[in-house]
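ZP: hey, is the zinc ion complex queued? I don't see it on the tracker
AM: it wasn't, my bad. submitting now with these inputs:
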Amino acid sequence: MPELPEVETVRTGLAPVMEGQVIARATVNRPDLRWPFPERMAERLTGARIDRLRRRSKYILADLDRGETLLIHLGMSGRMTVSGDPLGRFVHDHPMPEKHDHVVFDMENGARVTFNDPRRFGAMDLLPTLEADSHPLLASIGPEPLGNAFNEGYFLAAVKPRRTPIKTALLDQKLVAGLGNIYVCEALFRAGIAPTRRADRISTPRLAALVPIIRDVLTEAIAAGGSSLKDYRQADGELGYFQHNFDVYGREGEPCRTPGCATAIRRVVQSGRSSFYCPQCQR
Ligand SMILES: [Zn+2]
């Protein structure tokens, strides 16, 4: 499931072919994904210029010159592919249409952006740009972890009273936007905090240290995603899924990477999701 860095990588990959460009033709091949598409979506998108392509949490928002904003959510398995890019960043031709190509944007500049989603947990919606932030999906989302509102004062006030495991608190999208299972596991490893530790029982300095650590973990992943974009010239134009070297995520039974530790990484299930941690380094 794509988390904030993956979505940001998709946005970065789409921006050069979509931002400031007119959608010559939007093709919508089915009535719905997770929810029904908005009325006449293809017509409302065709001919519109995308003034700005931005991200809020795990949503990509395309502000159109018609006062509407296209909201895109990749869901569990959604993929964005770019082909026929006139600038040559993506040199491959348009591929044959595939079974789960649900929405296709043919840009006036010749690029084609295809949204493919086999499991159809993704979503697209059109909303008035002025009301975008109050859309039901966005209204209750907490501050962006890389923005100024996510700071030590805010974080301590929001987390310190919580009697839930710290991992549960960090996954709460009302507390902070866009964090998911992978990057929460990685941040807690770097902070030396066990994912099962109750938030209200973690000392203030240890909690406060999480703020820059979360920023670092995400910034590094976004950088890895950005450098992966260069490889798409040789690859298939698919954006957003990149190889990243995780310290604990997905490494159950493998040795901890802390120098001098080498304890086997452990996996526990919390609220139905796997947490990976080093029982020696994380308390
Ligand atoms: Zn360790």
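AM: back. The chain has a mean pLDDT of 92.
ZP: great, adding it to the tracker
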